[in-house]
Amino acid sequence: RRVLFRSVDLYTRDARLMPPGRVIVGRDAIRSYFQNPNRRQIEHDMMSETLNVRGSTAIETGTWTNTYQEGQAEPVTASDKYLLVWVHQPDGSWKILLDMWHRPVTPSSP
């Protein structure tokens, strides 16, 4: 399954975004994090590999792939693993409570 995230409305109001080395709390702060005027988002895909639902909570893991461009530089594509915790809402929808990922390991020079 491929998912393209286009809206922070998928997050709960008190969601936690956990990029490497940071914790960002709340939908407004998450919106600010994703609005980077120096980075043009070209494509962002998420391929779900596992989904475990227990009552009103779902835990999803998978692989993300992101292509972006900073300034006039050549586009960069990276890919690695993610973890999402979804919670069932009173209106029947599912929203993200926790979004965590890590960056690919850069091979070190010998």
Topology:
Elements: E1 2-3, E2 11-18, E3 24-25, H1 27-34, E4 39-54, E5 57-70, E6 76-88, E7 94-101
Parallel strand pairs: 2-7
Antiparallel strand pairs: 1-4, 2-3, 4-5, 5-6, 6-7
SSE string? EEEHEEEE
What is the number of helices? 1
- What is the average per-residue confidence, as pLDDT, rounded to a whole number? 88
The major pleated sheet works out as:
7 strands, mixed
Strands of the largest sheet, in order across it?
Answer: 1-4-5-6-7-2-3
Strand content: over 45%
- Low-pLDDT segments, ≥5 res: none
Describe this structure in words.
The chain has one helix and seven strands. The protein has one helix spanning 27-34, and strands at residues 2-3, 11-18, 24-25, 39-54, 57-70, 76-88, 94-101. It has a seven-stranded mixed β-sheet, with helices on one face.
Concise account of the structure shown:
7% of the residues lie in helices and 57% in strands. The protein has one helix and seven strands, in the order βββαββββ. The N and C termini lie far apart (38 Å).
Task: List key phrases describing it.
single chain; 110 residues; mainly beta; seven-stranded mixed beta sheet; 7 strands; globular
